[in-house]
Design goal:
Elements: E1 4-7, H1 15-26, E2 31-33, E3 40-42, H2 48-58, E4 68-70, H3 74-77, H4 86-95, E5 100-105, E6 120-124, H5 129-138, E7 142-146, H6 160-167, E8 173-176, E9 186-189, E10 196-199
Parallel strand pairs: 1-8, 2-8, 4-6, 5-9
Antiparallel strand pairs: 2-3, 3-7, 4-7, 5-6, 9-10
Helix pairs in contact: 1-5
Length: 209
């Protein structure tokens, strides 16, 4: 079944359109949505078949890849991770919502499919209304994995209509929230004694450290 392209205003999302996407997520659907960095593909983290489908579309194995997910806010994050040190918590509190992925030790609430071979998870709280409302409506985090482009010059597809053309037969909904950016989030490993930047991206963590 072909996907549906749904326009949702990023600053003032229509609650009915958000509810429609949430319903698809609740039924195990896979959606593509904007974030404060690049467009992401995702599903409900607790729907194993949907998570497997996302991995299949990406061409990766669920237990071999680090799947990050979006939480609503800092208090939501605390359900899915353990041992957040005070210095890390202080940095996260200042930096989020924002263009960062924090790698943290996962709690038992994280589904096994997401951290079968690892005991860590990547957590995001984007500074963007659409994913925020989707997670709020669903009541669970959603997977966030990037929409990559085969083009060597443009690594990430930023035009939702082009994303729809490319992924329309693979996902259930593509949200058009306007042009995305083509720089991903900054990834910070918080599992060691010192916070370590694994990937330089859109966010500068040094201003919060």
């Amino acid at each position: 079944m072909a996907a549906e392209l749904i326009k949702i205003h990023p600053d003032n999302p229509d609650p009915r359109r958000i509810a429609k996407v949430v319903e698809v997520l609740k039924n195990g659907g896979v959606v593509i949505y904007p974030t404060d960095t690049i467009y992401g593909m995702g599903c409900d983290i607790f729907n194993q078949k949907a998570v497997e489908r996302v991995c299949q579309i990406k061409g990766v194995k669920a237990d071999k890849t680090l799947l990050s997910f979006i939480c609503q806010d800092i208090s939501h994050i605390s359900e899915y991770v353990k041992n957040i040190s005070t210095p890390v918590f202080k940095v996260m509190k200042k930096a989020l919502p924002g263009p960062f992925t924090f790698i943290l030790e996962s709690s038992s609430k994280v589904p096994k499919i997401i951290n079968a071979k690892k005991k860590t998870v990547g957590i995001r709280v984007p500074d963007h209304n659409i994913p925020h409302h989707l997670v709020e409506g669903l009541g669970n985090p959603i997977i966030t994995t990037s929409i990559r482009d085969e083009d060597d010059v443009i690594e990430y597809t930023t035009d939702p209509e082009l994303i729809f053309e490319k992924f329309g037969n693979l996902v259930d909904i593509v949200i058009d929230g306007g042009y995305g950016k083509n720089v991903p989030s900054t990834v910070i490993d918080c599992t060691g004694e010192m916070m370590e930047v694994l990937r330089e991206g859109a966010g500068d963590i040094s201003q919060f450290a």
